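Hi there,

I know you've been waiting on this one. I reran it after we fixed the sequence typo, so this is the corrected version. Both the input and the resulting structure follow.
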Amino acid sequence: MQPRYKRILLKLSGESLMGDKSFGLDPAMIARYAQSIREIHDLGVEIAIVIGGGNIYRGMNEAETGIQRAQGDYMGMLATVINGMALQAGLEKEGMFTRLQSAIKMEQIAEPYIRRRAIRHLEKKRLVIFGAGTGNPYFTTDTAGSLRAIEIQADVILKGTRVDGIYTADPEKDPTATKYDTITFNECIQKNLKVMDMTAFTLCMENQLPIIVFDMNKEGNLKKVVMGEEVGTLVKG
């Protein structure tokens, strides 16, 4: 069987790299993710990745810290580059060729983000990790993921989370919450379901880019999603 998706953008949260820790990086979790990604890379899927930075730095209240929002956002962007470097090391340990591209110039550790170069890397079956968000404050890594996915003409955004899809309510707080298998962009907005931040979500909706929300921590799930099995929740037009 052929994979359903030829080119994907995988969006991971920074917190997911913590594993059971309360801060930072868990080498065992990075290794697990690298092995899951290797499975789909071996199928010939072209893979781009965006990671958050919440395991290292989360935006904090300016009144409490004295750090302005823009400054804090830049700090968060640097955290995503650290995560990108850690995942890059894990992927290369699994024998894959990778490129880390940064929206903020730091030539010693990452290529600058250049759209055509990123696409060429993907065509050569290199994994491309996009770091430093969009390079602008006031935008989240969800927005960076949506923007990059559209720019590289990905077939889908795969949003790996701790839960196995989108629910009518938070399943960790409401035991009666039920899961959607498929839902439209408009239904998500009407029901006020927080799939991504609104800027990121609107970008996907306007460009008819489907999103699949799934549990990245369940072994084999990433491969199942790429092969077209009904895992998680599909958001489409």
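Quick highlight: The chain has one domain: 7-236.

Best,
R. S.
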